[in-house]
Design goal:
heterodimer, B: alpha+beta, six-stranded mixed β-sheet
Chain lengths: 283, 364
């Protein structure tokens, strides 16, 4: 049966794209709403009936957020913290994952260590908020970017280890054995033979880490207090005050916060699809 | 460079995979490790490559003990069963890899890659990637990567087993020529006795981690050290008949069967009584006409191979044996037939231990 089942014929075509369209619409509607609010004057924001398209746009909220207030600073902090913690987590996690995937440790330590690492994701992160606050306070890192980098690296590590361990296990052992017989060291084989083969997986993992760090709210809120180390999510939430909720500023900052992740995801999209399906098809 | 194993043992936990292996090659020799799967031949090769640790004993290349030398410093080249080509590199980059990690000059790399690629007739493929190549081409690339430099030893782990039958026979011949031209010691692992017989200067037959016999293909075939070697080498397999040697009557008996033995055989029997007769199919002659003094049998089935016929027979005692007959041999199933055993070519094994009793004298 060629092209049978769902999606065959005109009715099927309509159903298929209708459902897909509905999914896209429901996902994009809040984004659209946020973008329009960021461009609307206050009077238009909550007009009844809502003004979907017809309103006179203004960039006042953007100027308010990034010129009058310190959202530019928050953006920079978010970028530094997310990028550095992602790099740290990827480097450390990849090496750990390689070791867990390749070395035969005694007493089934490979699996046990991997499970211990995973177990750090099994409790709700909030239970560590107070201990981490005290810890950072003791080492005088409160309200600094390194505090967030350390915490994000720690929380992304298990994810990186487990993802990359899976990707490494997909690579035939014989490839690096061949590399070593050919005269390469273990690290040389990792760099020249294995890493190029797991690049798609590496890219996919990095995107996830970056998104998680970029959007993280809980630790950024508890570990920072001033503009010096505040990230975008905390800054945005700070616009909800007891007197007013600054929808325009929040939306403007939200739109800007979206852009870097979008750009990065588009840039590595080619790898992303291959990374997520790595090992699904032998090739 | 010659390779020596001295009392080498390898165990994984409590299971012993290679048991007290002692074996030395000559310089430039082509040695084949032959055995069924799980006999320890691949583990032996991997220990030589440094991909497995040695539990006890010494492995030497030349005069140097290499147990603790890491793989990359052993100066060996290996061809893997799966070829293990680097999928993200072109064929040229694959072949150049061993030179590149040794920081050979770019021009020199290019020259050597060209040279081996031409030698193996893959020079047209250099810019392609492994996934675009056929199995036979990949095999050649794996070989090229091994011979692009001059290592002390070549290791080959069933390099031909993923090829189809015709290509395998062709590559087998080319491999033999190649090794002859390069003159480098080669250790080759296979479970295919035809590869072992055709390629090797000497064959090491292994079983359950133990070396059974290490000898020339001719001696492995004609003078097997024990019943296992006799059975494993040769196709169709050697016939075995359990029975007794009766010294007084100078015969081998099994049920109603009584086969007189030539004097030379009797001398070497050493008073063994319970023995197993082993005789190769080509030393069993079969006729559909009544012959005096031949043993009567029944045709069970015949298999015409084109150039010869395998005749499966049942002896009066119920034993099934195989005889090799000419292509013109014709017989119906269940037809009576007569067989003659070429007893001077027979082997005898101790019924208990399976060890050869009276190994045939070395053929002159």
């Amino acid at each position: 049966m060629k092209n049978g089942g769902w999606g065959s014929g005109a009715g099927g075509w309509g159903l298929k794209y209708g459902l897909a369209g509905l999914a896209v619409l429901s996902a994009l509607l809040p984004v659209y709403w946020m973008m329009t609010i960021s461009l609307k004057k206050e009077v238009d924001q909550f007009a009844v009936p809502p003004k979907w398209f017809a309103f006179s746009p203004t960039l006042a909220h953007y100027r308010d957020a990034f010129v009058e207030r310190s959202f530019g600073q928050y953006l920079l902090t978010s970028a530094i913290v997310a990028v550095v913690s992602t790099i740290c987590a990827i480097v450390l996690g990849t090496l750990a994952a390689y070791a867990l995937a390749r070395f035969r440790l005694p007493h089934k330590l490979n699996m046990r260590l991997a499970l211990w690492i995973l177990s750090t994701r099994m409790f709700p992160p909030i239970v560590t908020a107070v201990p981490l606050f005290l810890l950072m306070s003791d080492v005088r890192l409160l309200d600094t970017r390194p505090a967030l980098i350390i915490v994000y690296t720690a929380f992304n590590l298990p994810f990186v280890v487990w993802m990359m361990r899976g990707f490494f296990q997909e690579i035939p052992r014989e490839l690096e054995e061949a590399a070593r017989v050919d005269g390469d060291s273990r690290l040389g084989a990792l760099r020249r033979v294995i890493l190029p083969l797991v690049t798609p997986g590496l890219a996919a993992t990095a995107v996830f880490c970056l998104i998680i760090s970029w959007n993280e709210f809980l630790f950024a809120l508890t570990l920072t207090q001033t503009d010096a180390a505040m990230t975008l999510p905390v800054g945005i939430a700070g616009r909800v005050t007891q007197y007013e909720i600054e929808w325009g500023v929040m939306s403007a900052a939200g739109v800007v916060a979206m852009i870097p992740i979008l750009v990065f995801a588009l840039a590595v999209q080619r790898y992303l699809v291959r990374g997520l399906s790595l090992g699904a098809v032998k090739g | 460079m010659n390779v020596s194993f001295k009392n080498v043992t390898k165990s994984f936990g409590s299971s012993v995979v290679v048991d007290d292996l002692t074996l030395s090659t000559e310089d430039g020799e082509f040695v084949v490790l032959l055995g069924p799967s799980g006999c320890g031949k691949t583990t032996t090769l991997r220990m030589l490559a440094g991909l497995e640790d040695v539990t006890s004993g010494d492995i030497l290349i030349g005069a140097e003990r290499i147990n603790n030398i890491p793989t990359q410093a052993r100066d060996i080249a290996m061809v893997f069963q799966s070829y293990a080509l680097y999928p993200h590199m072109t064929i040229a980059e694959n072949i150049a890899y061993p030179l590149r990690v040794r920081k050979t000059a770019r021009a020199e790399i290019e020259r050597r890659v060209k040279q081996v690629a031409t030698m193996l007739e893959i020079d047209k493929l250099l810019s392609r990637r492994p996934r675009d190549l056929s199995g036979g081409e990949r095999q050649r690339v794996a070989l090229a990567r091994a011979i692009v430099r001059s290592p002390k030893v070549y290791l080959m782990d069933e390099p031909l087993s993923n090829l189809d039958a015709r290509l395998r026979v062709q590559m087998r011949g080319e491999l033999k020529r190649l090794q002859h031209e390069l003159g480098t010691t080669t250790v080759y692992v296979t479970h295919d006795q035809a590869e072992a017989m055709t390629l090797a200067h000497r064959v090491a037959v292994m079983r359950a981690g133990r070396l059974q016999q290490f000898d020339t293909p001719m001696n492995i075939y004609n003078r097997p050290a024990n019943r296992f070697v006799a059975e494993f080498v040769g196709s169709p397999s050697m016939n075995f008949i359990e029975g007794r040697f009766r010294a007084a009557e100078r015969v081998f008996t099994s049920g109603n069967l009584a086969l007189p033995l030539p004097d030379a055989q009797i001398e070497r029997m050493n008073n063994h009584e319970r023995v197993t007769l082993g005789i190769r199919p080509e030393h069993v002659h079969v006729s559909t006409m009544v012959r005096d003094c031949w043993t009567p049998a029944t045709v069970y089935v015949t298999e015409l191979m084109g150039n010869e016929t395998f005749v499966f027979l049942r002896l009066p005692g119920g034993e099934k044996i195989i005889a090799r007959a000419g292509a013109d041999f014709r017989a119906e199933l269940e037809m009576p037939a007569w067989v003659r055993f070429e007893m001077e070519r027979a082997a005898f094994f101790d019924a208990e231990s399976g060890e050869a009793i009276n190994r045939n004298p070395e053929p002159r």
